[in-house]
Please model this.
Amino acid sequence: MSVIAIENLNKSFGAFNAVDNLNLTTKDGEFVVLVGPSGCGKTTTMRMIAGLEGSTSGSISIDGEDVTNQSPSERDVAMVFQNYALYPHLTVYENMAFCLRVRKWSKDQIDAQVRKTAKALDIDALLERKPSALSGGQRQRVALGRAIVREPRVFLMDEPLSNLDAKLRIEMRAEIVKLCRRLKITTFYVTHDQLEALTMGHRIVVMRVGVAQQIDTPQNIYDTPINRFVAGFIGSPPMNFLDAVIERSGLLTGPGFAGGVKSALSSRSGAILAGVRPEHLSPASEGVAGREGTIRGRIELIEPLGSQMMIQVAVGPSLVSAQFERGPDVEVGRDITLVHRPNTVHAFDAKSERSVLADAQ
Ligand code: ATP
Model:
């Protein structure tokens, strides 16, 4: 259980800022997910928290103690990385006991702690096996066990599930969340998968070229993304963006697009970028074409998704995706009128790409 405070943290490699002025204070036992595209500075941030990489400036403290210049072992953090690198010649038991032996725990203490941790991770039946006799998911559990067996102050996980197949990833995702909530260890978790971020984190840090774009709960990030980048990165399928104009009345208009948006926009007029999530668009009932809140275009592609379907619609110069319950009246080449759910249209400044709504608040 720990509080980690990161203040004005920077890391430069020559003239390149890999991490640019990061500020974040966790809550005790919080699960924080760092998410963003490749090269945005996630791993560099983790390595600085772990003490494997020095910072160019700024500070990191754990429970009020400045650890910025401490070695990794002094910080009492545990790490699990993508290549979990278990010792191949040691059994699961020995892999987990190793770090406790280094810390000079007694034989009995080690035995009790290894067995308790193995039980928590459901690997107690595997303790005598070598890593080569384990499945990918089991190996990953052992790697987690090896990291948590000594009950560190902070748990750092860098893409720990990326070697697993899709089904196992989902299972392990849930396991990790349950485990971390039970143990209440403050955790930083790196992923480039926005769904993993949405489902796992108490809070998400969305990063882009070294800069934290938004730090907030998954729900707030999904509902009120701060800029076009966050809006497009979080949410699947990605948000649609359409060139539009805000009329003085507060209505958005654009090619094929006419929609009422939140009243906060009525104080502003001019060109903006409208954003609407595919899952907030559905076919309109008869006779509403051209009314407020509708988008009209030609169906270009239909992708069946089981109970739902995804369609792509050419709206003016843009291609708009919509995802909704499967229905009979949808055919490639036909025109369709889509209606958006109330209060789900976002608006971004055409130049700065910042959310107009966020700025209006
Ligand atoms: P990925 O998801 O691909 O692992 P990431 O978000 O974890 O990416 P980092 O590994 O933190 O990204 O790297 C951030 C940037 O810093 C990248 O542009 C990378 O090339 C650069 N970088 C990282 N380490 C070094 C280094 N030792 N020397 C120079 N540049 C580096």
About this structure: DSSP finds ten helices and 20 strands in the chain.
